[in-house]
Amino acid sequence: MINENACALGSNRSVIRELFEYGRRRAAEVGPENVFDYSLGNPSIPAPPQVNDAIRAVLAELDSLTVHGYTSAVGDFDTRRAVAEDLNARFSAGAKPEDLFITCGAAPGLTAALQAVTRPGERVLVVAPYFPEYAVFIAAAGAQMDVVPACKPTFQIDLKRMESMIAPDTAAVILNSPNNPSGVIYARAVLERLAEILEAKSRQFGHPIYIISDEPYRELTYGGLTAPWLPHIYGNTVVCYSWSKSLSLPGERIGYVYVPGSAADQEKLIAAVAGAARAAGHVCAPSLMQKVIARCAGVRPDLEAYDENRRMLYDSLTAMGYEMAEPDGAFYLFIKAPGGDAVAFSEKAKQKDLLLVPGDGFGCPGYFRICYCVSPEMIRRSLPVFRALLEE
Ligand code: PLP
Fold it and tell me: Could you tell me the distance, in angstroms and rounded to a whole number, from the CA of residue 189 to the centre of ligand 1?
């Protein structure tokens, strides 16, 4: 018998993908210059040149069997050492290669981390607005998802609500900062207070409540701001990282899970991450990419193009009267839908070939997301459409 849940998951197309494909069809009909597609978070800054240089160097220097062979399941030692050294240089993290498990990006890292810290039936808290795939990853762990409602208009964390929602069987909290879709970086003071709450609740319920920190946008911050390093604020943090956005390598599938020495049962926990990944069919992350990361762990992206887009959109749209949170990171703006109904507003926008993603799927109705990894020309051409929609 075919598994109905799997079938439903595989057949229900994501709203974002549907929009993106609609945009492609419309571009073929009316010309790409007349479609304003803000749907998909696919990086528009090419990978830094050091990445392609490293690919060429690896191919030139290493034999083909080594480059393309299996690596150990946890990842090449050199890769883990390079990542640990980079974390230590930047955050004084105290990371060791043994604390790292190299994954095929953030998504499988999150899946493994969730399965490592939950038992079926336990609860996982997520903070709205949140990345919709969390629902899928949490269900795969057999756990229940509880959503902390969005804290409007700042999109920080509603700590009172969060505290009241932590139950005896809450095993973990997923945080994502800089945030998709709000672009907000959670403030240090908010995270410190959250850490106090989680420590108290862990004591009260007699087991650790882990933070799973989903950080594919860690390097994508603007205006001199940075996202606080969570393991220093809350020891029971598991970091899920990816180079999909920071080095513009989403199709190459490379990232890691980091379990700091401060985490409760650290050795057991990293073994559980490895075991959960194994159960999901993980064999090893792409070998060539691991060797590239061993040489590029310290490379940072040049974010000038995103920053210009961010400022142009934020300044123009707020001047028109649109309202949104300060977009300090990632490459998204999360905007209050005029009229209050984001689905209806996005549908009206779609009639004008302006493709916006309603916030409903992120657990935050009434807002829509735009992704600004697009060309500045597209932004300029789309501004009159935003204005016309507001005037309607
Ligand atoms: N988490 C968030 C918040 C994301 O936005 C994404 C991708 O867009 C992912 C995880 C998945 O990242 P990856 O492509 O590295 O699996």
Answer: 25
Q: How far is the CA of 176 from the centre of ligand 1 (A)?
A: 10
Task: Tell me if 4-47+302-391 shares its fold with 50-296.
Answer: no
Per-residue pLDDT tens digits for 42-85? 999 999 999 999 999 999 999 999 999 999 999 999 999 999 99
pLDDT at site 45: 96
- The atom of ligand 1 lying closest to the CA of 214 is 1
Q: Global pTM?
A: 0.97
- What would the CATH number be for the domain defined by 50-296? 3.40.640.10
pLDDT in tens, 275-323: 999 999 999 999 999 999 999 999 999 999 999 999 999 999 999 999 9
Q: Which of 127, 176, 213, 245 to mutate to test the pocket of ligand 1 (most atoms within 8 A of CB)?
A: 245
The class that CATH gives domain 4-47+302-391 is alpha beta
Q: What residue's CA is closest to ligand 1, atom 12?
A: 106
Which atom of ligand 1 is closest in space to residue 108's alpha carbon? 16
Whole-number Å distance, alpha carbon 103 to ligand 1 midpoint, is 13
Using 70 as the pLDDT threshold, list the residues of the chain that sit under it.
Answer: none
Asked whether the bond before 32 is cis by omega within 30 degrees of 0, the reply is no
The span from the CA of 138 to the CA of 190, in Å, is 24
